[in-house]
Amino acid sequence: MMRRYLAEFIGTFAIVFAPVALAATAGLKGGAAGLLPAALVSGLAVLAMVYALGHISAAHFNPAVTLGFAVSRRFPWRYLLPYWISQLLGGICAAAVVTFLFGPGFGIHVPSVSPITAIVIEAMITFFLMLVIISVATDRRVNGAVPGLAIGLTVVFGVMIAGPVTGGSMNPARSLGPALLAGGTALSSYWIYVVGPMAGAVIASLLYEFIRGGSEHAKGAPNDLFEALEEIGSK
Predict the structure, then answer these.
(1) pLDDT value for 148
(2) Full-model pTM
(3) DSSP bridge pairs for 218
(4) Which of 33, 62, 114, 222 has the most crowded Cβ, counting Cβ within 10 A?
């Protein structure tokens, strides 16, 4: 299990480091600033880590995604907390490295709308992300080459839509590290980036299980990870 926890740590570190470091270097000569670069680097980081580490840990890299898999019975509940800890530590360490290199305050998420609106927006974009993830990762009818590309592109359009409004987090681990190190409004607003993504992921996972229409084509998340972890836990 430690290898899986380490994979979750590394993957989450990468997908947090990429957009936060981009924000830190955007103002430098040759830096890439704006919504499109932020969306692309976020999606590409997720795409790369899914292909690199998905076969080890299932590439959740997101506490909301792990919760969605657990609620839909595609991931054992007993491993929920260790996965969360690995993911949150990965995000915090990524933000700490950027802070050490460039200073605090980069890559923070602060909504530009009311908390209720922000929660709904985060829930909606996370809903689509989780719907894609649970579909491509837990259905035997999906080609194994699809998940990384499909998930990465979903992150891109999520950030493009919600970037000006909430920052387009979709991931409590993405928002926590920068908020902790910046403090202030970013930290006091962090709860929005827990409630919204968690709600969206749970709704999407339950809805897809209904749409799937039974267990005939279902598997763990992915590569029958559920069965492997259950076997480990029974020993």
Answers:
(1) 86
(2) 0.89
(3) 139
(4) 62
Residues 189 and 173: their CA atoms lie apart, in Å, by 14
CA-CA distance, 74 to 70, in Å (whole number)? 6
* Closest listed residue to residue 23, CA positions, set 199, 154, 182: 182
- Look at residue 230 and tell me whether its pLDDT is greater than 60: no
Using an 8 Å Cβ cutoff, are 118 and 169 in contact?
no
List Cα–Cα distances, 139 to 116, 187, 204, 211, in angstroms. Answer: 33, 37, 15, 11
Rounded to 5°, the CA angle 97-103-108 comes to: 80
The residues near 41 (Cβ < 8 Å, ≥ 6 apart) are: 18, 19, 22, 32
- Count Cα neighbours of 26 within 13 Å in the Cβ-side half-sphere: 16
Residue-range domains of the chain with CATH: 2-234 (1.20.1080.10)
3-state secondary structure of 165: coil
